[in-house]
Amino acid sequence: MNSTTQLEQYQQQASKSQTSQPPREAPEDLLDCPYGRRYIRRVTDDGDVAYDEVPLALDDLLHPEEEDELVAVLGHSQDCGRLSTGLDRLTPPNKTFVVLEDVNVDLGLPGVKPIRPDVGVFEVAAIPDGLSDMGTFHMKRHAAVPVLFIEVTSGSTRPNDLGPKFRMYEQAKVQQFIVVDRVHPSGTGRLAGFEYRGQGLVELQPDLHGRFWLAAFDLWIGLEDGVAVLYDANGLVPDSEGLAKQLEDERLSSQQHQQQAEDERIRADSAQERLRELEAELARLRSQEP
Predict the structure, then answer these.
(1) In this structure, what are the phi and psi dihedrals at residue 33, rounded to the nearest 5 degrees?
(2) Mapping DSSP to helix (H, G, I), strand (E, B) and coil, where does residue 142 land?
(3) Digit-coded pLDDT (tens) for 88-114
(4) Is 238 helix (H, G, I), strand (E, B) or coil?
(5) Residue 28: what are its φ and ψ, rounded to 5°?
(6) Architecture of the domain spanning 3-21+72-237
């Protein structure tokens, strides 16, 4: 299946879940912001600076401003955090990758405002200064190659993830694009994978386990009980919580081995001391023989 056919299919599915955009006016209830909120600066009649809080529209999710606060969905956030943490930790030693989560990216496309991939991986010559404080990562400025983009769909973002973002990533020649479709119409999570070849993104076929090969990392990405996870040659890659538990288990195991070794040393020393005492006693008894 070519990318155009897949894109048309995705757009048809996405349009069914697309909702009307809320009006851009201050909400009476500040919780009435289904997509998130933006703070707009204004100067009052008294010359003071004030900020009005307004709800975001669906289009704002496609091109958010740096300070926009997007509504977070727990499962979506956990998938993004797990994947970005795993990819950052497992970057090949011979590569210099920048792994970004939920950070604005200027793709360098004419007339296209920055977008915010859930997870974006870029190959660079060197890690840019001030990366952790960047509100927007500029691909052209840092001569960055887009290696891998991952979008994790939610009810509000799915229309953008499967439509406009697909086209922009294709124009930016993103080498690999993975969609973790948490809200697939089938009711179960799905993965879709695409690779840039020639003139566009071409759909990839998963392996027998429904996983996709991430060539830049020598890893697989798949779903376990609807949760997006990574696999290496040894199997499932633990997430940050799982990794912490694994390290703690290894630390406790090391302490146990050290304690066992110390106990063995003490027993051996005690045995040697007892042997010397017995030898001394035997020598004393022999010295008393007529």
Answers:
(1) -130, 80
(2) coil
(3) 999 999 999 999 999 999 999 999 999
(4) coil
(5) -65, -40
(6) Alpha-Beta Complex (3.90)
Q: How far is CA 150 from CA 75, 123, 136, 142, 215, in A?
A: 15, 15, 17, 20, 14
Domain boundary assignment for the chain = 3-21+72-237, 247-290
Q: Which amino acid is at 142?
A: H
Distances (CA, A) of 1 to 154, 160, 202, 283, 285: 25, 21, 8, 92, 96
Q: Which residues pair with 71 in a beta bridge?
A: none
Measured distance CA(17)–CA(14) in Å, rounded: 5
H/E run at residue 105? strand 104-106
The Cβ of residue 197 has, within 10 Å, a number of other Cβ atoms equal to 11
Cβ atoms within 10 Å, residue 181: 22
Q: Which residue type sits at 163?
A: G
Q: Does residue 248 surpass a pLDDT of 70? A: no
Provide the pLDDT confidence category of residue 222 given band limits of 50, 70 and 90.
very high
The b/e string for 82-108 (b: 16+ C-beta within 10 A; e otherwise) is bbbbbbeebbeeeeebbbbbbbbbebe
Cα dihedral 226→230→234→239 (10° resolution): -90
At 149 the pLDDT is: 98
Task: Tell whether the model's pLDDT for residue 249 goes beyond 50.
Answer: yes
- Nearest CA-CA partner of 100 in 81, 114, 76: 81
